[in-house]
Amino acid sequence: MESRKTVSLIVPSDIVARGLGSILEESGEFSVEEVFHDFSKAAESRLRGIDPDVVIIDPVILDFKSRKEGRNMLSDVCDSIVIALDGPAVTEDVLKLYDGSVSLYDRQDELVRKLRNALETRQPDAVSDGGELSAREKEILVCVAKGMLNKEIADKLNLSIYTVITHRKNITRKTGIKTVAGLTVYALLNNLIDLASVQ
Predict the structure, then answer these.
(1) Pick from 88, 102, 104, 94: which is nearest to 73 by CA?
(2) DSSP of 17-34
(3) Residue 1 pLDDT class (50, 70, 90 cuts)
(4) What global pTM score does this model have?
(5) How far is CA 21 from the centre of its chain?
(6) For the chain, what are the domain ranges?
(7) Which of 1, 83, 86, 149 has minimal CB crowding within 10 Å?
(8) pLDDT tens digits for 187-199?
(9) H helix or E strand, kind and range, residue 175
(10) Contact by Cβ (8 Å): 40, 114
(11) CATH fold label, 5-122
């Protein structure tokens, strides 16, 4: 049997933490390792130590100025998928910065599906260098070849910027090409784009 994915929760409410924890545990796919009620230095240190697969954070735990930096702050602490808990005080532009979002109104199957999708998007099946690009990676490669920036790609494909960056790293690893010009030539040679679309 495949091992459960580990989850840490950063939420100020005991009720929400216990509810999310219970639902995730019941799914059989996830194990809640730790619950933090703030994003203090002690919480950061503990997250570094356990490095969970997924962190679910309620952005309201951060002061208003820091909400847009929440995802970056967590990237400095651990290499986890970071999911925002959507609520009335969380704006759409903040949610887009995360690897995904869940709502207090999601049913168990929706919550599990969202976490599963975020994990699959961020950590695609391991493929050795030189492996076949996935359909999503090809889609992102086409955007890169057309000169689009990460933010533009994220907006166009309705992804977080961090997911786009992860896909770009995978594209570079699989193709061995680090430059935009090189990736453009690769896309042309593999008939992903035509010459007219990049001129």
Answers:
(1) 94
(2) HHHHHHHHHHHSSEEEEE
(3) very low
(4) 0.62
(5) 20
(6) 5-122, 135-198
(7) 1
(8) 999 888 888 776 6
(9) helix 161-175
(10) no
(11) Rossmann fold (3.40.50)
